[in-house]
Amino acid sequence: MSERGNRGDRGGRGGRGDRGSRGRGDHGGRGGHSSTTEKKNILDLTKYMDKSITVKFNGGREVTGILKGHDQLMNLVLDDVKEITRDDEGNMSTRSLGLLVARGTLLVLISPEDGSEEIENPFVQADDDE
């Protein structure tokens, strides 16, 4: 009976085997955060600080403004913001909004204004008047 606490390999399930990492905290579990993996943002927006960018939202709205701040959730602070609207014929008009805080969950596209230009759609076929 003195061997009661020392289970060893005495039948049953064939020894302890690998029971995972329950309670030890070395592989996730409840042991806390691992210091070896650090999340990084996909975009490095620090290089666009105080520069003009275009932001498109998932509702179809589009704005341009100067990036003043951001956080890890991709929330943006833009200054001198102008909303760009297009009508059915494709005519573009703008209206001034001033300071804008854009929530990161609504963003679809972020692009810098310098180094970008709008081109014709190469996939639209020209209409022939025959």
From TrEMBL:
Stretch list, region Disordered: 1-42
Keyword RNA-binding recorded: yes
GO MF entry, a single one: RNA binding
Compositionally biased spans, kind Basic and acidic residues: 1-29
Residue ranges of the TM segments: none
Domain of life: Eukaryota
InterPro entries cross-referenced by the UniProt entry: Lsm7, Lsm7/SmG-like, LSM_dom_sf, Sm, Sm_dom_euk/arc
Principal location class: nucleus
Entry annotated with the keyword RNA-binding: yes
Localization per record: Nucleus
GO cellular component annotations of the record: catalytic step 2 spliceosome; Lsm1-7-Pat1 complex; spliceosomal tri-snRNP complex; U2-type prespliceosome; U6 snRNP
Keywords: mRNA processing, mRNA splicing, Nucleus, Ribonucleoprotein, RNA-binding, Spliceosome
Coiled-coil region list: none
Residue ranges occupied by any Sm domain in the UniProt entry: 40-116
GO biological process: mRNA splicing, via spliceosome; nuclear-transcribed mRNA catabolic process
Family, per entry: Belongs to the snRNP Sm proteins family.
Record's protein name: U6 snRNP-associated protein Lsm7
Protein source organism: Extremus antarcticus
